[in-house]
From TrEMBL:
This protein's UniProt keywords: 2Fe-2S, Disulfide bond, Iron, Iron-sulfur, Metal-binding
Pfam families: Rieske (PF00355)
Signal peptide extent: none
Organism: Floridaenema fluviatile BLCC-F154
Protein name: Ubiquinol-cytochrome c reductase iron-sulfur subunit
Length: 154
């Protein structure tokens, strides 16, 4: 390679490596413009989505009904309540009874989940209080993001 060829390759390399920066400079700033036009609830939803949490309902619905029962949520069937011992935190379980698959109900005044089929009872953390169920209810992580109640499996 002679000197002329060498400098020719260096110039091509310099142009090629700076091309992405040049393109980014001339594109509209989609990140900032999206935030400027995105309502707070959508931004919270995006944050929740990125951390693995999925929206299953609204805080207004939770407070109006005392629970959110969403059998077709993005994480599967879920029942969310406010923690009876700390109303600032949430509890989310899979309401499918591990005995034979009935849907448990939250008994707010008694503070346990009740299965209407064979009377199994589960503590707010999902543990079995009374059989015939032998396994606990599956649980989710749950929290409030903006106006949404969000849950995450595991
Ligand atoms: S299905 Fe729940 S106790 Fe039997």
């Amino acid at each position: 390679m002679n000197r002329r060829e060498f400098f020719g390759w260096v110039s091509v390399g310099a142009v090629a490596s700076s091309l992405p920066v040049a393109i980014a400079t001339f594109l509209p700033d989609s990140h900032n413009s999206a935030n400027a036009e995105t309502p707070e609830t959508n931004r919270s939803f995006t944050i929740a989505q990125s951390s693995g949490f999925k929206s299953v309902g609204t805080v207004a619905s939770l407070d109006k009904d005392g629970q959110i029962l969403n059998k077709k949520s993005p994480v599967g069937s879920v029942l969310v309540i406010r923690n009876p011992n700390d109303s600032n935190s949430l509890i989310a379980v899979n309401p499918t009874c591990p005995h034979e698959g009935c849907t448990v109900k939250w008994k707010k005044s008694e503070k346990y989940f009740d299965c209407p089929c064979h009377d199994a009872e589960f503590a707010p953390d999902g543990k079995v209080l009374k059989g015939p169920a032998k396994k606990p209810l599956a649980t989710y992580q749950a929290k409030i993001e903006g106006n949404s109640v969000v849950v995450k499996a595991g």
